[in-house]
Amino acid sequence: SLDKLYNFADCAGLHLIFGLNALHRNPDNSWNASSALSLLKYSAGKKYNISWELGN
């Protein structure tokens, strides 16, 4: 889970960089960002210091 990954990085003195991609698509081929938004909101709620990148 994200909590375990973040805690591991934090305990090891590392900064977590999380890569997102635009794989999930809507029927009109636009990016379905709902999963990414959920992850971002969850991380913000936990006050996690994470860097994010978007790529394919």
UniProtKB/TrEMBL annotation:
Coiled coil: none annotated. SUPFAM superfamilies: (Trans)glycosidases. Belongs to the glycosyl hydrolase 79 family. This is Uncharacterized protein.
